[in-house]
Amino acid sequence: MSKKQLHLISLGCTKNLVDSEVMLGRLKDYEISDDPKTADVIIINTCGFIDAAKEESINTILTTHEERKEDSLLVVSGCLTERYREQLEKDLPEVDIFTGVGDYEKIDKMIAEKRGIFSPQVYLANEMSERVITGSNTHAYIKIAEGCNQSCSFCAIPSFKGKLHSRTLLSIEKEVKSLVKKGFYEFSFISQDSSSYGRDIGLKDGLIDLIKTIENIDGVKVARILYLYPSTTTFKLIDTIADSKTFETYYDMPIQQIDDSILKMMRRGFGEKKTIELLEHMKSKKDAFIRTSIIAGHPGESNRAFERVCEFMKEFNFDRFNIFFYSNEETTPAFTMKPVDEEIIEQRIEILEKIAEETTKNSLENMVGKNINIILEGESDEHEYILSGRPTLWAKEIDGDILINDTSNLEILFGALYEAEVTELAGDRLLATLIKKL
User: Fold this and answer.
1) Is 197 helix (H, G, I), strand (E, B) or coil?
2) C-alpha–C-alpha distance, residues 242 and 132, integer Å
3) Whole-angstrom Cα distance, residue 172 to residue 268?
4) In this structure, are residues 324 and 50 in contact, taking their beta carbons and an 8 Å threshold?
5) How far apart are CA 228 and CA 255, in angstroms?
6) Under the phi-then-psi rule, with left for phi > 0, alpha for psi from -120 to 50, and beta for the rest, what region is 397?
7) What does pTM read for this prediction?
8) 176: alpha, beta or left, given left = phi > 0 and alpha = psi -120 to 50?
């Protein structure tokens, strides 16, 4: 008798992906299918953070419903359903089962009983959760906390994810050791505000403690922290990351704006001067890679404030930065503030995107001629004889890849570490030659 087929769509952030992997772990009796048309069970793990994400989630639900076979089961979980449960249950009769952000480990029970569960607690995977890691045999995301203690004016996450809830160091250590035994050697540690990790469980410098713990695990070759928050990031933490032989000197700290008046309106807890001091300290570290994000069009963002952020982004030369169109979210303090005209926001995004293109190009040009460590990921999207490699300094699925057009006749093993020399920048892609296998 053939196994029942499962099709899972995970939308939004990598934190959502970890929860999706937990659901796959609970449904290991199913055969994974890439085609929703043939699947017996379809799960869509939604994002409900900003308007664009909400729209994508709704469109995915409706499109998938149109494609699915008649007797299949459509399950919708995640942030969107947690935020808008009553409205969605009323407006989307196409969905068979709704669940939120608290019951990923009960997904098998829900499917068996054909009913949704909405627990009041937010789910946080631990070392006992049976995850099926997707997208790689060597890299895994490790969620270290859920929720957030910040009160940013534009962010709705605390309203449906709650306050900071950290895992214990022992729980994280056990999960990483277990994954190392399965062949994983690269780890990205994630949460809403990673630099606050452990504060709710009595750890003063929790993230530093975590770094020290992971450094002592044999088999972890590459690690990085994602999503630092300015007011909870210290010089000591920046130094600890830079001094680590296991963790990449990678700083992902969304600043959202730089003008003092807008930062105050955003309730960011840190002003321009202190934010720049942190960033300059990161920049002083050898081979540091610095990523950030900017929100365009927050209520109250004047022309002067926008000009200030443009000036700063050009001056500082971030390796990468993302730009977000301000999304007016109910349940947030900014919801009732006077909005900036949408046309103005669109114009501002265009200007920032041009700056981002230029600073990314500068970052890539600075790598030409350098020897770097890369992970060989597979054939490239350019040609089957050109390979795709990712510098260990770059985050998986976030910072892109480089093209390997000369393998120096070395043995090729996808997922393995190599030393490579970056030879040139062709358009917006770096080219490199393999030197040796590490």
Assistant:
1) coil
2) 31
3) 29
4) yes
5) 9
6) left
7) 0.95
8) alpha
Which residue type does 182 have? K
Nearest one of 266, 292, 262 to 279, comparing CA atoms: 292
Average pLDDT by consecutive 10-residue portion of the chain (438 residues)? 88 94 96 94 92 92 94 95 93 95 95 93 89 95 96 90 95 98 98 96 97 98 97 97 98 97 91 96 98 97 97 98 94 92 97 98 98 96 91 97 96 97 96 97
- Pull the structure tokens for residue 103: 């019951």
DSSP assignment of 17-86: HHHHHHHHHHTTTSEE-S-TTT-SEEEEEE--SSHHHHHHHHHHHHHHHHHS-TT-EEEEEEHHHHHSHH
DSSP state of 4: P
The CA distances from residue 210 to 126, 240, 291, in Å, are: 15, 11, 21
Radius of gyration of the chain (CA): 22
In terms of DSSP bridges, do strands 417-426 and 429-437 run parallel, antiparallel, or are they unpaired? antiparallel
Determine contact, residues 422/430, Cβ cutoff 8 Å. yes
Helix orientation angle between 272-283 and 303-316, rounded to the nearest 10 degrees: 10
Tell me the DSSP string of 6-18.
EEEEE-S-HHHHH
